[in-house]
Amino acid sequence: MRLDIAAVVNLVTHSLPLSQWGLAESVKTDSYVIYNSQWCRVKFYIDIDGHTHWTSLWVYYGRLHALDNEWTMKWKGRYHYCWHDSNSDLKEALQFLDGVSPGTAYKTRWQRLPLLDEFHNSESGKNLIRYPDEYTLQSQALIWKHYGVHLFELFDLRRPDLWEKYTDFLKEYYTLDEKEARAAYKQKGIVWEPPFNPPRYKRC
């Protein structure tokens, strides 16, 4: 499907209960639209494949200080990621909310969350596989329904205590990732260099 921003807004407003969570449009460009609530920001971004020029829809979550069009920002004197990809980063956030340990989360990093696995294998999920943008939004709708305010509160600037616990969770999770990567590189006789700058656990 070839998306433009009007199509994205139409899909989002028909697929997600924006008003239920007080999400109102705050920024709209040709490539993304951002909705703000009292808790957080949600960005719907059109990614264009450089070879085929086909488009896909990506969803990102950010705290209220997240910059519109930057993926990192300076926070407490250091650079951090300010948007959280729903395809990867959000899984870690949901596991944190579920009370899963960083070690267990890391061991199951290639597995779908049970909630999303059930959706993927359901009749409606199988029917939507052919329509990846709709599939993405229906997955988010399911997450919103299941986690409710607990999801949005995680990003709330008024809950620094919760964010600090989440940061500790991420640091332990990515320490395991780094340890495994270092061991694999050492076995091959290659000097390991951190692939991400800032480190992936630095989020704000």
What does this structure look like?
The protein has 204 residues and is α+β, with helices and mostly antiparallel strands. The protein has one domain (5-187). It contains 8 helices and 7 strands, in the order H-E-E-E-E-E-E-E-H-H-H-H-H-H-H. It has helices at 5-15, 89-97, 102-107, 114-120, 123-128, 132-147, 149-154, 160-187; strands at residues 24-28, 32-36, 41-48, 55-62, 72-75, 78-81, 84-85. Strands 1-2-3-4-7 form a 5-stranded antiparallel beta sheet, with helices on one face. A two-stranded antiparallel sheet has the order 5-6. The protein is globular. The chain starts with a helix and ends in a 17-residue tail after the last helix. The mean pLDDT is 92.
Task: Set down the secondary structure blueprint.
Elements: H1 5-15, E1 24-28, E2 32-36, E3 41-48, E4 55-62, E5 72-75, E6 78-81, E7 84-85, H2 89-97, H3 102-107, H4 114-120, H5 123-128, H6 132-147, H7 149-154, H8 160-187
Antiparallel strand pairs: 1-2, 2-3, 3-4, 4-7, 5-6
Structural features:
single chain; 204 residues; alpha+beta; two-stranded antiparallel sheet; 8 helices; five-stranded antiparallel sheet; globular
